[in-house]
C-alpha cells in the first residue's frame, strides 16, 4: 500500500524475497502485475541496450511450496538466457536481479557468509545451481539484496577474481560483476560486516542508501551508491565497460 503512489506513476519492477513468503507468496502475486506468465516470480524485460531478468532465489529455500519450482525456474532461465545471447547485437547487456546473494561478507548467520549459497551451488550443492549457468551465458551484472548493506565485488566466478586488468578491473571483466544493495531503508537495521573482507570484496558500505544504475549505451554501465545517511553523497562510483565484440561467453 505504501508503494502504490510510486508504482502508479513510475515503472516499479519487483523481485520476490523472503518477506513475501507467507501463504505461498500470494500477497506478492496479487499486488504486483509483472510481465510473463509466472505470477511475477520470474520474468524478464528489455530496457534500452539491456536485457534484464528478475528471478526468485526463494524457491531454493521454501521447498514446502514445491521443489518443482526450482526446476521450472532453472529451465526458464536457461531458455531466456539462450534467447538473450542470440540478441546481443541489439541488447548487449544481460543483467539479473535476485534477492539472496551468491556471495557476501556480512557478520550474520545467513546463507552466503558461513554457509555455501544454495543459489550459487543449487540443491544439495549440485542441482540447479545458478553461478555456472550465469557464467556460461555471460551475464554481465548480477544485482542482489537481502543483506542490509552495500557490497561491490570484483568480477568473480567460483570464488576466483577475474578482473579485466589490475589497472582497470571492470573494463572487459572476465567474470560477472556482483552488487549487493540491500540497505534501502529496512526497519531491521543495518547488517554488520565480518571483520576482514574477503579477497573478492572490493567495497563495503554500512549505511542506509540506494543504488543508481545508468545504462549509458551498449558498452558502458555506470553504477553509483547513494548514501541516505550522508544526505545523498555518492559513496561508491564505478563504470563497467565491455566491448561489443566477443562478449557472449567469458571463456
Tally of extended strands? 14
User: What is the H/E order?
Assistant: HHEEHEHEEHEEEEEEEEE
Mean pLDDT metric: 94
* Helical coverage, percent range: 10-25%
Strand order of the largest sheet: 1-2-3-6-10-7-11
| Whole-number total of structural domains | 1
Which overall shape is indicated by the principal axes computed on the Cα atoms? globular
The named CATH superfamily:
Metallo-dependent phosphatases
Name the CATH class: Alpha Beta
Task: Tell me the structural class.
Answer: alpha+beta
Largest sheet: 7 strands, mixed
Radius of gyration: 17 Å
Please report the distance between the alpha carbons of the first and last residues.
Answer: 46 Å
- Say what oligomer this is: single chain
Count the DSSP helices.
Answer: 5
CATH second-level architecture: 4-Layer Sandwich
CATH level 3 topology: Purple Acid Phosphatase, chain A, domain 2
Low-pLDDT residue spans: none
The percentage of residues in β strands lies in 25-35%
Organism: Mustela putorius furo (European domestic ferret)
Domain Purple acid phosphatase C-terminal: 175-236
Keywords: Glycoprotein
Domain Calcineurin-like phosphoesterase: 5-150
Amino acid at each position: 500500500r505504501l508503494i502504490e503512489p510510486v508504482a502508479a506513476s513510475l515503472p516499479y519492477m519487483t523481485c520476490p524475497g523472503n518477506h513475501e513468503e507467507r501463504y505461498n507468496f500470494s500477497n506478492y502475486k496479487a499486488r504486483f502485475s509483472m510481465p510473463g506468465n509466472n505470477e511475477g516470480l520470474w520474468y524478464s524485460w528489455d530496457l534500452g541496450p539491456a536485457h534484464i531478468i528478475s528471478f526468485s532465489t526463494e524457491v531454493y529455500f521454501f521447498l514446502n511450496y514445491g521443489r518443482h519450482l526450482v526446476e521450472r525456474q532453472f529451465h526458464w532461465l536457461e531458455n531466456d538466457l539462450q534467447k538473450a545471447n542470440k540478441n546481443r547485437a541489439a541488447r548487449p547487456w544481460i543483467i539479473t536481479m535476485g534477492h539472496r546473494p551468491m556471495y557476501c561478507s556480512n557478520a550474520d548467520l545467513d546463507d552466503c557468509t558461513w554457509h555455501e549459497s544454495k543459489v550459487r551451488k543449487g540443491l544439495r550443492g549440485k542441482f540447479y545451481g545458478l553461478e555456472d549457468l550465469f557464467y556460461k551465458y555471460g551475464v554481465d551484472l548480477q544485482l542482489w539484496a537481502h543483506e542490509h548493506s552495500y557490497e561491490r565485488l570484483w568480477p568473480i566466478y567460483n570464488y576466483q577474481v577475474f578482473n579485466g586488468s589490475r589497472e582497470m578491473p571492470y573494463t572487459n571483466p572476465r567474470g560477472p560483476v556482483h552488487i549487493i544493495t540491500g540497505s534501502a531503508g529496512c526497519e531491521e537495521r543495518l547488517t554488520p560486516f565480518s571483520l576482514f573482507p574477503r579477497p573478492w570484496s572490493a567495497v563495503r558500505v554500512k549505511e542506509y542508501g540506494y543504488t543508481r544504475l545508468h545504462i549509458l549505451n551498449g558498452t558502458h554501465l555506470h553504477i553509483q551508491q547513494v548514501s541516505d545517511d550522508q544526505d545523498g553523497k555518492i559513496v561508491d562510483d564505478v563504470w563497467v565497460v565491455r566491448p561489443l565484440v566477443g562478449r557472449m561467453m567469458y571463456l
